[in-house]
UniProtKB/TrEMBL annotation:
Stored SUPFAM superfamilies: FAS1 domain
Species classification: Bacteria, Pseudomonadati, Bacteroidota, Flavobacteriia, Flavobacteriales
Matching SMART domains: FAS1
Pfam families attached to this UniProt entry: Fasciclin (PF02469)
Superkingdom of the organism of origin: Bacteria
InterPro entries registered for this protein in UniProt: Adhesion/Biosynth-related, FAS1_dom_sf, FAS1_domain
PROSITE patterns named in the record: FAS1, PROKAR_LIPOPROTEIN
Region forming the signal peptide: 1-22
Membrane-spanning ranges: none
Species of provenance: Kaistella carnis
Name by which UniProt lists this protein: Fasciclin domain-containing protein
GO cellular component: extracellular space
Amino acid sequence: MKKSIMILAVVALALSSCNKTEGTATVTETATAETTPGGQETVKDDDSAPDIVKLAVSNPDLSTLVKAVQAAGLATSLSNAGPFTVFAPTNEAFSKLPAGVLDDLMKPENADKLNDILSHHTYVGVIKTDQLTDGQNLGMVDGKPISIKMVDGKPVVNGTINILASVPASNGIVHVVDSVILPD
């Protein structure tokens, strides 16, 4: 009921402030948005900076991560406002896992386990590489910390995982990493 009243109010406002043609377009756009299945990750927007999920989808080196995020049911969460810092393993990073582990994690019955692992790659807030310091611990979404060590002036995660690139997104930042960060 409240949703219907809100939609009617928006339509009435649009019709009262625009000419008839523009008002009709607004009604059509509103109706389309209401019937589109999926969450925030399904919104088409080619003008704004991409969110974390759209950024990952656009990078072929992160296709395994995208499949894992979808299998774990995290695409909507990582498309929302954030801000988030995501340590994104490359396809090559996933290939370093023991044989069969990734296939097992991608099974529907292991979605919770996969969610836990991916949550260990996500920090709530934006941390750029120049804000990472030696000995720093970051509390990840799964409740467990990762540690930062400076090696040759560059931050390394948990002593061995290198940040290959950092890309800002509309809802945070993505640090592309060369290994999967497994919780203890």
